[in-house]
Amino acid sequence: MNWVASFTNFIKSKHFWRKATFNEMSALYLSRILRVLALNLSSVFIFTFLLKSGRDIKQVVFYMVVALMLQALFMPLGALLSAKFGAKKVLLLGNILYIPVLVILSLADFSNQFIFIFSAVLQGLAVSIYLLAYNIIFSEVKNNKNAGSEIGFMMIFEKIATIVAPVVGGILIINFGAKVTMLVSSFLLLIASVPLFKAQGLAKKRHYFNLRGFPWQSYKANFLGQFGRGFNYGSNMIWPVFVSLFLVTNANAYGVVGWVTALQSLTSFVAAFVIGRVLDKEVISVKKLFIYSVLAQSLVLAVRLVAKGQLGAIIFSSLYGLSSIAYYVPFLKAQFNAADQSGSRVVYEMALQFSYVFFSGLASAFFLVLLYLFSIETAFFIMFLATPIFFATFIWSDYPMFRKK
């Protein structure tokens, strides 16, 4: 296809990739961009859509808890499949499995409890195996010397999609409805699978998988450190719900949620490549940038407590996007370096991603308990108060790269 060839030539001209052919990497990234575009076209609105479809907020948060906990439970399955058949095939499977999730959300009657739970189960499976496979592949094919720039480049591609998609999605939903938009997303996901069929040699076909021989003690702090990051993610998942309930209560809630999400991505996009280059040139150590950025985001999360109206949503989203990318690039660089040294890339990524989504589910479960104990507004306040405190514990993650002097 011409669009695949054009993207391949663009990647090749930049000479970023060393451990995989340009055709393979362009296929991976073109698929990734299309997937991010598809999901951000509608997924950022899923919980707002469920609320406006008549679901109680407790039911919506319960959906979050089920989907996240199932992601954690399905992570070992994704690891086994990646080890047996190769991460590329699992990546493709995760892409395809998400299509029926969006179709169900667009067509199903959610008064049927079975359909409601089934969609959460399928979403948990699809996201879990895709997330694991993608991290395995990127940690394997990235170039160690230029890892910061490559991660920054990866984030730029993703942020371009997440700048455009939520705005377009919000406009589509306002004019054609959420169901039509989700069907459009499912079609884009189908297209996103095409480049993966062309990437015949992407990453290894088989991976080493040995739980008993893995050095768990050496990487325990990596996995436990995901508590803060997971709590932050669980809290950020309910931010669009808070925006639609309290900051923007009119009919254009979809549009504002879309703009707010896009704004987060825009500020991240501006910072991504600069931070990657700074790390590669060792202007600041990976550990220092990570710690300073985590603490900065904790302060930003505290600011969310006083956000009022659309202006408050815009200011918070801008600061959140900037501080997110500032810690995320050094974190990924340290994560992939740890996977290289662990002796089993699949086991390491499985344990790390399991910890992350499990703690995210735990955060959502905590919020669900708050909703049963307090008013909705008070529950949000306590959740947003706890998030910066818990997220700050992420600085205790001890990666091998951080131990370098």
Write the topology of this structure.
Blueprint: H1 2-14, H2 22-42, H3 46-52, H4 57-85, H5 87-107, H6 113-141, H7 147-176, H8 178-192, H9 194-198, H10 216-224, H11 226-237, H12 239-247, H13 253-280, H14 286-303, H15 309-341, H16 345-373, H17 376-391
Helix pairs in contact: 1-2, 2-7, 2-8, 4-5, 4-6, 4-16, 5-6, 5-8, 6-15, 6-16, 7-8, 7-13, 7-15, 10-16, 11-16, 11-17, 13-15, 14-15, 14-17, 15-16, 16-17
Polypeptide structure, described:
The chain is mostly helical and 405 residues long. It has a single domain (21-197, 217-403), classed as Growth Hormone, Chain: A (Up-down Bundle). The protein is 80% helix and 0% strand. The chain has 17 helices and no strands. The protein has helices spanning 2-14, 22-42, 46-52, 57-85, 87-107, 113-141, 147-176, 178-192, 194-198, 216-224, 226-237, 239-247, 253-280, 286-303, 309-341, 345-373, 376-391. Helix 2 runs antiparallel to helix 8, helix 11 packs across helix 16 and helix 15 runs antiparallel to helix 16 (345-373). The protein is globular. The model is unreliable at 10-22 (pLDDT under 50).
